[in-house]
């Protein structure tokens, strides 16, 4: 019994930090430090680079952290407002929670440059500038693969951007959606491109790369099935609504089922599991109605209240500050990586 209880001690430390860090940052508002950054710093302090109270070898925390990252990407997909992206899909839910048909004459006003257009143009510009920097670093002998370096410098951590937007209550506005979509494009586009580059270098253009597209095929099929089912079978809608207010919490169970379905499918197809989680969240965003807002809030509470802080704190725990400071080559290379990566995103 003592051995079992002892295995929960690192989890207690992490959860305690998740509770204390926001309180401390609220106390010291002048620091203007996002909670996300505070949690990562807290992880560094209690991790192997600090006191060593929590290690990356803890299997329970490792599993919870990985699931936390997956769940965060799922929530990010749920936050996408498709009605604001100039994408014509029947049944797109507005921020107010009502489903509309964008093909009708009552569709929303078109914008020349919406969040998606701005994000795509920004990513192309960032990738182009990163490629220039990558080839410059190649000339001075700091890197051997300029295109890989360009992709690395072009990426953005959606796992950090999304909680900050949520914390600042910007995520539902046009500015917040633009930042969210930009981070999404940078994160997943570079992830897919890096996968393709590595696979091409190692094995060439094989069938495995093309199998990733099956994720989007399944997404479209399930989306259409969901639209048809919810619109034609009123009894199904009523049953879901009734069970969502009982201990069954059927909408929450259904959300986790859909998320894990796409996660497992992505895993089987050799894609990143967080891509599958994001696609699942995006589908729920498309299918959601005003009646689903309560379930959405409950999912957010689970994610931001438990899984997300564990993931962020474990990011700090896994950061090996000693290895960085102990390597002269790494310290020399660091400014050549950080400064260009920062400048190409300005």
Automatic annotation (TrEMBL):
List the InterPro entries.
Cation/H_exchanger_TM, Na+/solute_symporter_sf
The yes or no answer to whether the keyword Membrane is present is yes
List GO terms (cellular component aspect): membrane
Question: What GO molecular function terms would the record report?
Answer: antiporter activity
Which segments constitute the Cation/H+ exchanger transmembrane domain? 16-340
Q: Which UniProt keywords apply?
A: Antiport, Ion transport, Membrane, Transmembrane, Transmembrane helix, Transport
Asked if the record carries the keyword Nucleotidyltransferase, the reply is no
Q: Where are the transmembrane segments?
A: 6-26, 33-54, 60-78, 118-141, 147-165, 177-199, 211-233, 254-286, 306-339
Give one GO biological process term.
Answer: proton transmembrane transport
Q: Which is a Pfam family this sequence falls into?
A: Na_H_Exchanger
Q: How does it sit in the membrane?
A: Multi-pass membrane protein
Chief place where the protein resides: membrane
The listed locations are:
Membrane
**Which residues, by range, are in coiled-coil regions?**
none
Q: Which family does it belong to?
A: Belongs to the monovalent cation:proton antiporter 2 (CPA2) transporter (TC 2.A.37) family.
Q: What is this protein called?
A: Cation:proton antiporter
Q: Which organism is it from?
A: Caldilineaceae bacterium SB0675_bin_29
């Amino acid at each position: 019994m003592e051995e079992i209880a002892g295995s929960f001690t690192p989890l207690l430390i992490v959860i305690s930090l998740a509770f204390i860090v926001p309180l401390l940052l609220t106390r010291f508002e002048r620091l203007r430090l996002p909670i996300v950054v505070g949690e990562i710093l807290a992880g560094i302090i209690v991790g192997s680079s600090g006191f060593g109270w929590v290690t990356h070898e803890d299997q329970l925390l490792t599993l919870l952290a990985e699931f936390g990252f997956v769940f965060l990407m799922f929530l990010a997909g749920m936050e996408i407002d498709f009605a604001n992206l100039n994408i014509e899909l029947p049944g797109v839910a507005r921020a107010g929670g009502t489903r509309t048909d964008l093909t009708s004459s009552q569709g929303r006003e078109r914008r020349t440059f919406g969040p998606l257009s701005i994000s795509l143009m920004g990513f192309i510009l960032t990738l182009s500038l990163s490629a220039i920097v990558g080839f410059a670093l190649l000339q001075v002998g700091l890197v051997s693969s300029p295109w890989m370096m360009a992709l690395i410098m072009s990426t953005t951590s959606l796992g950090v951007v999304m909680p900050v937007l949520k914390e600042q209550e910007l995520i539902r506005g046009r500015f917040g959606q633009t930042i969210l979509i930009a981070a999404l494009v940078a994160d997943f586009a570079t992830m897919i491109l890096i996968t393709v580059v590595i696979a091409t270098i190692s094995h060439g253009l094989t069938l495995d790369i093309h199998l990733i597209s099956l994720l989007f095929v399944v997404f479209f099929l399930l989306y259409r099935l969901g639209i048809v089912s919810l619109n034609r079978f009123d009894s199904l809608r009523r049953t879901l609504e009734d069970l969502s207010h009982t201990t069954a919490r059927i909408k929450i169970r259904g959300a986790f089922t859909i998320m894990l379905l796409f996660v497992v499918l992505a895993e089987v197809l050799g894609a990143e599991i967080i891509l599958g989680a994001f696609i699942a969240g995006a589908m729920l965003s498309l299918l959601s109605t005003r009646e689903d807002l309560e379930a959405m809030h409950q999912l957010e509470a689970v994610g931001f209240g438990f899984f997300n802080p564990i993931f962020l704190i474990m990011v700090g725990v896994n950061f090996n500050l000693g290895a960085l400071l102990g390597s002269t080559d790494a310290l020399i290379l660091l400014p050549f990586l950080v400064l260009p990566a920062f400048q190409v995103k300005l």
